[in-house]
Amino acid sequence: MAFLMHLLVCVFGMGSWVTINGLWVELPLLVMELPEGWYLPSYLTVVIQLANIGPLLVTLLHHFRPSCLSEVPIIFTLLGVGTVTCIIFAFLWNMTSWVLDGHHSIAFLVLTFFLALVDCTSSVTFLPFMSRLPTYYLTTFFVGEGLSGLLPALVALAQGSGLTTCVNVTEISDSVPSPVPTRETDIAQGVPRALVSALPGMEAPLSHLESRYLPAHFSPLVFFLLLS
């Protein structure tokens, strides 16, 4: 019975930040599909910080109306909203909308706000609830909270998120090289390349290495469904 209680408390702690941690480890796949590209981490940071309005409201209610707020219904609401939002997120994460001057991931950012609202508010609701249990369960709770980052990381490793490989790419130069064979070094890539001797009027092929992402073992849809 004691082991089951510790297990349930650990799972309870894992629900605190599992979805936001899952977003961060999934970034290598998300930035390739969404129009924001590598600006996406900046948008995520802003949205997550805006979601701190949740714990602020809970703190103000505890201070000014301490009797009207109970942790139990809030926790059930947070867990329900988080689960439903994560399921919706799995199907709508790559939906874009035309806003102002181009396509933007409005659905992604709005759903991220609700996920962050749940996770941020859990910091000021889960711990007060844990005060109802014996103090030795608090260690198990923090173990579960730490595992909320490990679980999505293991899923991302199984998914193969962000794995890259180097491929040799040959391009045709627009300029006509000198007929004298020369050897140059591509400083930007750090890869030496040979300029092939060519007759006037002919183009010389140039080779360099490019980093390419490998296809994931399963899609972000499956990833977010597993987290939910």
From TrEMBL:
The UniProt record lists the keyword Transmembrane: yes
Pfam families listed in its UniProt record: SLC52_ribofla_tr
Stated role: Plasma membrane transporter mediating the uptake by cells of the water soluble vitamin B2/riboflavin that plays a key role in biochemical oxidation-reduction reactions of the carbohydrate, lipid, and amino acid metabolism.
GO cellular component: plasma membrane
Keyword hit for Protein biosynthesis: no
The protein's name in its UniProt record: Riboflavin transporter
Reactions mediated catalytically: riboflavin(in) = riboflavin(out)
UniProt GO MF annotations: riboflavin transmembrane transporter activity
Domain of life assignment: Eukaryota
Species for this entry: Homo sapiens
Protein topology in the membrane: Multi-pass membrane protein
Protein family according to the UniProt entry: Belongs to the riboflavin transporter family.
Subcellular location: Cell membrane
InterPro entries: Riboflavin_transptr (IPR009357)
